[in-house]
Design a protein that fits this description.
With about 325 residues, the chain is α+β, with helices and mostly antiparallel strands. It has 13 helices and 12 strands. The mean pLDDT is about 85. Belongs to the Tdpoz family.
């Protein structure tokens, strides 16, 4: 996940060292001005002689915290870089600390930082300039939430083309029923339709094509799938859904719709039982679907399944039509 810095700012806090030495251990803090960064208010809180919330603090360490001062409805996530300025007024990387913290929106004046940032004797030795020490905190407010992208709705839009028949340029007639479609879409989805509708075959110049060996109900479902890449719910297919999936698998094989073919194979496999396995295996063998065929054979290998399935009428038909399958 990519983290984006949406806003940044630098806070500077200068402390009179001699005055700070007079502060009580784990006592009063020194606060910077409040600044707005990324829609949130922030300030540095420094406790030169340690922080009272740190149980075993003996005043040996300088404590530094960044406080989130806003009462907002959103959380703030910030990267913090804290360092001291050296005697020459340059940032010191020796004691620099960086960390990432999430400030919850429900907690006003929530702070996070370092109770033991540096030893109290360290600033006098390395960072004291004209009697002052300077603390710098760079705040980078981040956002790692992705830009919300809605799911694809191309299927819905293409399906609407089929519903309203706008721009259709080819018609199919099956057992007296008429189906309007778009040549370019069918050709894009099926190499078989591409050859028929844009190749040298007679159908390429025919505005109306009569189809045989496919039922109107099967063609209707297949055509809808070619537009929106989805099948209707099984409740729409009715009680004969197994037969419909077998017919759809055959149609998908005929028109080289590989995804539809495998979807139907899975649907049929989900419904396999000792009563249906022979019919489903015959369908798989007839329509060149090795994935479904192998599943059915594995089902037959289980002795209990075979003993029951062999007494069904569909098994007898399977043996007659494809004797090599069960050899």
């Amino acid at each position: 996940m990519r983290t984006t810095i949406v806003a940044s700012s630098v806070l500077k806090l200068t402390i009179d060292y001699e005055q700070a030495k007079k502060l009580p251990i784990a006592g009063k803090g020194v606060m910077s001005d409040v600044v707005s960064v990324g829609g949130h208010l922030w300030r540095i809180q420094c406790y030169p002689r340690g922080y009272h919330g740190h149980g075993d603090d003996k005043g040996e360490y300088l404590s530094i915290f960044l406080a989130h001062m806003s009462s907002t409805t959103t959380s703030a996530k910030a990267i913090l870089d804290v360092f001291l300025m050296d005697k020459d007024g340059k940032p010191s990387v020796k004691d620099e600390i960086r960390f990432l913290h999430t400030f919850k929106c429900s907690q006003v004046r929530q702070s996070s930082g370092w109770p033991q940032f540096v030893k109290w004797t360290t600033p006098e030795k390395d960072y004291l300039a004209e009697g002052h020490i300077t603390i710098v905190c760079a705040i980078m407010v981040t956002d790692d939430s992705p830009i919300p992208v809605p799911p694809s709705d191309i299927g819905t839009h293409l399906g609407s083309l089929l519903d309203c028949a706008d721009g259709t340029d080819v018609t199919f007639i099956i057992d007296g029923e008429t189906f309007h479609a778009h040549r370019a879409l069918l050709a894009a989805r099926s190499p078989v339709f591409r050859a028929e509708l844009f190749g040298s075959m007679a159908e390429a110049t025919m505005p109306c094509i009569t189809l045989h060996e496919i039922a109107p109900a099967t063609f209707k479902v297949m055509l809808r799938f070619m537009y929106n890449d989805a099948l209707p719910g099984e409740e729409e297919l009715g009680d004969s859904s197994i037969e419909m999936f077998e017919n759809l698998l055959a149609a998908a094989d005929r028109y080289a719709l590989d995804r539809l073919k495998l979807i139907c194979a899975q649907k049929l496999w989900d419904k396999v039982s000792v009563d249906t396995v022979s019919t489903v295996l015959a369908c798989a063998e007839t329509n060149n679907c090795p994935e479904l065929k192998n599943k059915c054979i594995d089902f037959f290998v289980v002795e209990e399944n075979f003993k029951e399935a062999m007494f069904t009428d569909s098994y007898a038909l399977l043996v007659l039509k494809f004797p090599s399958v069960i050899a």
